[in-house]
């Protein structure tokens, strides 16, 4: 039986729209494309939808209740007032993709997005060798993914284990029982620090004391949803004010962490010391065994070969739409509003962006 020639090029698959990423933003975009009877494909580097959630820490819970976290067309199963766990979120996203039978192509890591040689539409290349041609492309790879740590982190001795928050999953990952620091002033930093403090080992929390805190309960979510505050565009006067304001943390999580006797707050981190310690505004740590960096992420769009990326690597867009006709972003922090990178905001942003793309000439 004759074998195929491995040098034979794989035929390019043509479709109307390519969605890159099968997280909540990509799945919400797929829902609206399907509603409009558009021929499309979703490409994701992972073996299943919702893979970004699978990489998060085991104890993670959503910051929004199930009733306020659903994607379009399919509410969360189970009690509406609960705050779903990480594993529940993964299951929900995978069920969502399966329920609507989206054309999802997994293990398809995109290596290049560029204009088609013909001058019309775009080409998408993947590590599998499969190529795609499309009139439209939606980049829904989620918030930035390249860890951002202070330059002085390099001064910590090699013996100090350093983990970005995306790589932290459980306390057993951090060897030893001695001092560990968690650096960051967001909700993930508080939850990870509490996870580690629960083991009894000393945890030094480099948290900026000026960070605002607010409750996270049914009353707050009813207020945010009913007033529409989460959906206020950053391009409005109120939205610009909200965008410039510090992101609040959940007051309950902050109070819970403070109750752990093994948790020690040192203030905003300022420098590394030769001993392997970190100096904060209020105090310094002892020599550390490990540091978890919950200090945010930078953009990583080197694979986009289009004039829509700024010199600092960030995508250039207005409410998700770019100057490249037919190319849009979804799922970014403050893509348009506070909810843009949340499950709560995936549907509204996707509906607006898909509608705009489909009405373009």
Describe this structure in words.
- It contains 8 helices and 19 strands.
- The strands form 5 sheets. Strands 1, 2, 3, 4, 5, 6, 18 and 19 form an 8-stranded mixed β-sheet that branches. The protein has a 5-stranded parallel β-sheet with strand order 8-16-9-10-13, covered by helices on one side.
- It has 2 domains: 13-144 and 299-359, FAD/NAD(P)-binding domain (3-Layer(bba) Sandwich); 146-211 and 246-293, FAD/NAD(P)-binding domain (3-Layer(bba) Sandwich).
- The mean pLDDT is 94.
- 24% of the residues lie in helices and 20% in strands.
- Helix 1 links the parallel strand 1 (13-20) and strand 2.
- The longest helix has 17 residues, at 343-359.
- Helix 1 (24-35) crosses helix 8 and helix 4 runs parallel beside helix 7 (251-259).
- It has helices at residues 24-35, 51-54, 86-99, 187-197, 218-227, 237-244, 251-259, 343-359, and strands at 13-20, 40-43, 104-105, 110-115, 122-126, 131-139, 146-147, 161-164, 180-183, 203-206, 213-214, 249-250, 263-265, 269-272, 278-280, 290-293, 297-298, 304-305, 327-329.
- It is an alpha/beta fold.
